[in-house]
Amino acid sequence: MKVSAIIAAAGRGRRMGGKQNKQFLRLGNDMILNLTLQQLDQIEEIKELIVVVGASEVKFCLEEIFAKGNFQTPYRVIAGGKERQDSVRAGLAVLSHTTDYVLIHDGARPLITKELIKNALKTAKEKGTAVLAVPVKDTIKVVDQEGYVKSTPERATLRAVQTPQIFRKDLICAAYEKAEQTGFYGTDDASLVEAMGVPVFLVEGSYENIKITTPEDLLLAEEILRRRSKCG
Ligand SMILES: Nc1ccn([C@@H]2O[C@H](COP(=O)(O)OP(=O)(O)OP(=O)(O)O)[C@@H](O)[C@H]2O)c(=O)n1
Ligand SMILES: C[C@](O)(CO)[C@H](O)COP(=O)(O)O
């Protein structure tokens, strides 16, 4: 199984506030993006890391993460686009020709584990798609523009999706091509594959695999990391 990993890390982090790309903030003793990449670097099926950052951050990423690290996996660092989907598309454009699966992960999810990635890869090999997800804990309301509740979907049918999202290369490339033709923008990669009518399979994620989005997430992530380091 030859897998290319695209790490989307070109966001502006508006909900985090601050001037710096949130992926370059520190979490414990390390940089968020470095923590994320360290997990992916341990997976033998992953044959290349394609890291997508802001155009002005490419040099910083090469110097501060890759030059100082000891990465086993071949890597490249490229510039992303305006939306997450544009950044992932930039990654797809430089995929190795020999790849047969594409794993897409948010740079801002540093608490991903080797076990979750391995399990998702196994499923992707069987089903062609594998997307991490967890059951929703809250009751979710669909609202209208004035703030009135329109409906309450049955919670048992709802899942919160995470990354990695893994797809056979031909599927994800076709999905991105179709989205470009139709102008469709989704908030994750699976929604582009769904838009082609291809079934997407969900695998068990973890409530700890949070996306660092707002300042409270940093506190929670620090606590999770502290507990993990105590447990060895
Ligand atoms: N143009 C973009 C926008 C987002 N991302 C990446 O997609 C992931 C998920 O996005 P999100 O958490 O929403 O990050 P931001 O877009 O940076 O956050 P915000 O919406 O608060 O600005 C992040 O790792 C982010 O860096 C990206 O690669 N390119
Ligand atoms: C891809 C994602 O992380 C799945 O939960 C999420 O949809 C990214 O969304 P955001 O709007 O960029 O935070």
TrEMBL record:
Top-level taxon in the UniProt lineage: Bacteria
For this UniProt entry, the molecular function terms from Gene Ontology, in alphabetical order, are: 2-C-methyl-D-erythritol 4-phosphate cytidylyltransferase activity
- Answer whether the UniProt record assigns the keyword Transferase to this protein: yes
Give the site residues for Transition state stabilizer. Answer: R15, K22
The catalytic activity, as recorded, is:
2-C-methyl-D-erythritol 4-phosphate + CTP + H(+) = 4-CDP-2-C-methyl-D-erythritol + diphosphate
Q: Where is this site: Positions MEP for the nucleophilic attack?
A: R155, K211
Pfam families per the UniProt record, alphabetical: IspD
One of the protein's GO biological processes: isopentenyl diphosphate biosynthetic process, methylerythritol 4-phosphate pathway
- Record key words, sorted: Isoprene biosynthesis, Nucleotidyltransferase, Transferase
EC numbers listed for it are: 2.7.7.60
Cross-referenced SUPFAM superfamilies: Nucleotide-diphospho-sugar transferases
Matching PANTHER family? 2-C-METHYL-D-ERYTHRITOL 4-PHOSPHATE CYTIDYLYLTRANSFERASE, CHLOROPLASTIC
Entry's family note: Belongs to the IspD/TarI cytidylyltransferase family. IspD subfamily.
Q: What is this protein called?
A: 2-C-methyl-D-erythritol 4-phosphate cytidylyltransferase
Its gene is: ispD
